[in-house]
Amino acid sequence: MVQVKITEEQGIMEKLGILTDAAKYDVACTSSGVERRGDGTGMGNTMAAGICHSFSSDGRCISLLKILFTNECIYDCKYCINRKSNDVPRASFTPDEVCTLTMEFYKRNYILES
User: Fold this and answer.
1) What is the pLDDT of residue 78?
2) Distance separating alpha carbons of residues 86 and 106, to the nearest angstrom
3) Which of 1, 46, 48, 5 is nearest to 23 (CA)?
4) Does the predicted TM-score (pTM) go above 0.85?
5) Dist CA 45 CA 39 (whole Å)
6) Which among 24, 6, 1 has a CA at the least distance from the CA of 85?
7) Which tens digits make up the pLDDT trace of 44-100?
8) Cα–Cα–Cα angle for 82, 88, 91, nearest 5°?
9) 3-state secondary structure string, the chain?
10) Contact of 47 with 36, CB cutoff 8 Å
């Protein structure tokens, strides 16, 4: 089995792709099935960037940033996609990277303030 290790050369967008994909197995919020594709005037499709949809108590759809901080794990739980024996790309954000991503998505009105 080949383990893909985190490298210092990973860019924030590469990490975002890896950790967004890993977060889709987390049941912390629902997905509305809505896709926001680029229309040529905006930033583009937000589905690939970790935006998921949940609903408020009054029924409003709320966009949330859904990422993992890391998908590195020392445990080998058979049910978990991020178990140490699974051969998946690994990545970790720094706290500054998570803050930067969150603020950039918020400034573009992709996610809401909690």
Assistant:
1) 93
2) 33
3) 48
4) no
5) 9
6) 1
7) 444 556 787 778 889 888 888 889 999 999 999 998 889 999 999 999 999 999 999
8) 80
9) CCCCCCCCCCCHHHHHHHHHHHHCCCCCCCCCCCCCCCCCCCCCCCHHHCEEEEECCCCCEEEEECCCCECCCCCCCCCCCCCCCCCCCCCECCHHHHHHHHHHHHHCCCCCCC
10) yes
CA distance 69 to 95: 8
Q: What does the block give as tokens for 91?
A: 């990545």
The span from the first CA to the last CA of the chain, in angstroms, equals 42
Measured CA distances, 109 to 34, 62, 71, 101 (Å): 16, 11, 27, 12
Rounded Cα distance between 46 and 42, Å, is 10
Amino acid making up residue 84:
K
Nearest CA among 63, 85, 65 for reference residue 73: 85
Q: In angstroms, rounded to a whole number, what is the distance separating the alpha carbons of residues 50 and 41? A: 20
